[in-house]
Amino acid sequence: MSSLVLDAIGDLAEDAVLDPDPDLGLGPEDVLVAMEAAPIDRVDFLFAAGCYGIQPTPGQALGSEGVGRIVDAGSGLGSGLVGHRVIVLANQEQGTWAEQAVMRARNVVAIGEDGDAGQLAQLSIDPVTAQTLLTRYGSLKPGDWVGQTIGDGGVGQPTIRLAKRAGLNSLSIVRSEEAAAQVRSAGGDCVLIQGEGLSARVAEALCGRRLDLVLDGEGGETVGELARSLKFGGTVVAYSPVISQPPVIAPADLIYRELNIVGWWLVNWLRTAPRAEIERTYTKLASLVRAGEIGSNVEATYPLADYRDAIAHAATPGRAGKVLFTFDGGTS
């Protein structure tokens, strides 16, 4: 029952090691989850490097999100949870790159039996971020416009699909024509490529309308170009831990139109949101995966034993989808 752990804080590719005999002892409130699938996320690289909002410790289990099945439960829980298929919450309190993993029962959400494991495994970070951002800020209503940077990113694509379900319009900024084609095929209403005259092109595309919300996963000047078309008192939400520079928004826009810039972090939401809200969000998204309404590309899957190849693949620029570890989920 192997798992991947962090041998030292630094580089994920160098410092992830295989533990062939992890401690699977259960506390009273713990469950034992046989994993089915677990992605390699950008967060995992940041976490291993000590560049995330939660600091790792050597020996800590790795893997932020995933899907699996409860095969045992602690003495304080009884046997009622055993057999349930669950999503693991991405709060870094447990690792998911493991054949079996021990975690607190409060850190999993039951999501039903159906659905592709590779898609369900990717729910915990990007789709949840998109869903929460679209419902938390500004009381958006059908016909409103949501602008976003990195429209082809992990959060950008579910944002487009979830916005369309809610009757919202999306305006997405991307870096290349190839990315633009990808976003258009995903249902993006308006897709523009970064570059000269972007703010004017955004205004022209909106035909006199204003953006009602701007979601930023990039930082820098691009979000400022979008913000010029944001409504009075509107909000820019920065959500990505990989932003290398803060959003650059003109002081005139901030002051004269009283724009708001806020940050949002998934882990804070998981820590503070009511349990009912968390369960409702995950079960809704799981149902959309089962219906084929949301999903993410999977470029490759690997067994845990090939973890070095998997991590190297996940670090390769220009991938067309996520890289996942896959397991038998306790079925053998």
Query: What do the pLDDT scores average to?
Result: 94
Number of helices: 12
What string, H for helix and E for strand, traces the elements in order?
EHEEHEEEEHHEHEHEHEHEHEHHEHE
User: What's the N-to-C terminus distance?
Assistant: 12 Å
Tally of extended strands? 15
Please summarize the sheet with the most strands: 7 strands, mixed
Unreliable segments of 5+ consecutive residues: none
Kindly estimate the percentage of residues that lie in beta strands according to DSSP: 15-25%
Structural class: alpha/beta
CATH architecture of the largest domain: Alpha-Beta Complex
- The first-level CATH class name of the largest domain: Alpha Beta
What is the domain total for the residues? Answer: 2
